[in-house]
Amino acid sequence: MLQDPNSNASFSYVIYHPQSGQCIQVSNDKKDMFMGNCSNSGRWTHDNDSTPIRMSSTGLCLKTSGEGLMPSLSTDCFGPQSSWRAISNTKLHLATITQDGKSLCLQVENSNSSKIVTNSCICTDGAPTCLEDTQSQWFELVETNTL
């Protein structure tokens, strides 16, 4: 349960991956991100599109490190690599912009891995000719008020 009508806790978000039914978790040392049970996942804040996604417990921001690399948690919350927005017609791609203007999306590394990376966003322009499977890049911020 992610929302409890009887809870007095403030709202935050989990970063949910619909294909797997899991959420992004962060290791205790804050160096690794991986998919795991949503009840144990990190809680995040996000004001609106093109703003940082911050870990509620630390205030550190989710930041892209480059294509094919795991995102990191950083104190640098004001650069374009720390500004995230939902893109595509479905709004199921969370993307940031690299220093050279390229959109990178959160992605599960592969079907045999729970590791999170950022890669070039695929099929986000709504073109009906795109035949690639985009589900590995489907992530959404889901509001929660449970602890």
Automatic annotation (TrEMBL):
InterPro entries per UniProt: Ricin_B-like_lectins
Source organism superkingdom: Eukaryota
Official protein name in the record: Uncharacterized protein LOC111474043
Species: Cucurbita maxima (Pumpkin)
